[in-house]
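The instructor's notes for this session suggest beginning with a concrete chain rather than abstract definitions. Hand out the sequence below and ask the class to guess, before any prediction is shown, which regions might be ordered.
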Amino acid sequence: MKRLLCLLLTALMLLSAAACTVQLPAPQTENPTEVPTEEPSEPPTEEPTLQEVPEDWFKSGESAENPPIELTDPVKPIFETDGSIEVGGYADFSDLLSAALLTGTQNRNLSPVSVYLALAMVAEGANGDTQTELLSLLGCKTIEELRGVCGAMLETLSIDRNGSTLDIHNSLWMADKIDGETVKFHDEYLNTLAETYRSEANTVEFGSQAASKQIADWINKHTRGKINVKPEALNFNPATLAVLINTIYLKDGWSDAFDPDRTEQGTFFSPDGEIDADYMNRTDRNVTVREGDGWMAYRVYLNCVGRVTFVLPDEGTDLSGLLGSPEAIGALLRSGEDKRCDVSLKIPKFKFQDRMDLTAVLSALGLNLSFTPAADFSGMSDTPCCIDSVLQESYIGVDENGVEAAAYTMIAMRATGFIEPVELPMIEFHLTRPFLYAIESYDGTVLFIGTVTIPGEQ
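After discussion, reveal the predicted structure:
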């Protein structure tokens, strides 16, 4: 019996030892150490908790632990286009008109795009040789091509965000009667102006004080009060058949603002002698200037609308000597050799209004029939008419905050059947003598262009 018990105890001990040496199977998981390479198909149901930002993070634009990143290039523009407005016709027209009006001997501000759109609305109502000469000046072969260019302009050159504004409006003002006879405007013409040019249409009695006030109020409203047109200044001939108006208003800040504390008084060398001017100052690192024969150009970027290209003649070179032809204007804005450098920038603050009668200039540029009783504007109305006058008034203001500009172009149609980086050289771009400026959209469309010979508030 004792022997049997001993055998049983021995067997139990052997079984226990065997159990202790058996290896347990691994857990049933696939690739336990492999990290998934694809994002989950479903987003997490709970949003991650944001880390609290220290209160002094944005103080002076930096924090002690996180110094600001130094940019070696201008900030990429917020507003860019696909180049749909890059049409040689408009660029050629802008250069042609600028060359005819900018002499470099006086303050001058011009909006070529405003004149272009106003003339385009007139061209829509022209036929035959009259339309041909208008299309030729505007750089288009067909009215459909012109319509496409202007439609793209109005679509692309429209900005209203983040304090930046580029606003364009068109209008047609029509006579109801002339010499007691009712005037009829063609529906096709009115529909085209409304659909393509976003133009409103109004009927008025030209020659009356009420008509002058209504038109003046419309201009003042759409130029945001920067051009204050007095009703008594609009003396329309009772034989006026129609008036077509374009307005453009621009306001935008610098992408890299000027510090008002760095603005200081200095000397500006005008054609009439030395005068005092308030200069905005800053230093731009590792940027590009363009150099040409007798001039240097530098672009200062705006937040959304585009840029301001400043063209500075070399010392001893008169601004007037750089202008004078469309090719010269085009070269100043679109040619030159790029040079990488640091720039000590000095720009005088300036603000002034301008007024130009463009009638003679446009006639000299090729609008021969359009100003004569032989003009054919039968697409507008059965009442024979021609262009009576073309006027533009404008405003430009440049200071530490940015640029504000406005203009209107008015075309009057007269009835003719009736009465830290790499060490780079420092270049001084100091606008201390007469200079050219051009406010352009980012695709190169010239919105305003002018010359400054006397800075300050005129």
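Then share the key points. The chain has a mean pLDDT of 82. The domain at 260-349+427-431+442-452 is CATH 2.30.39.10 (Alpha-1-antitrypsin; domain 1).
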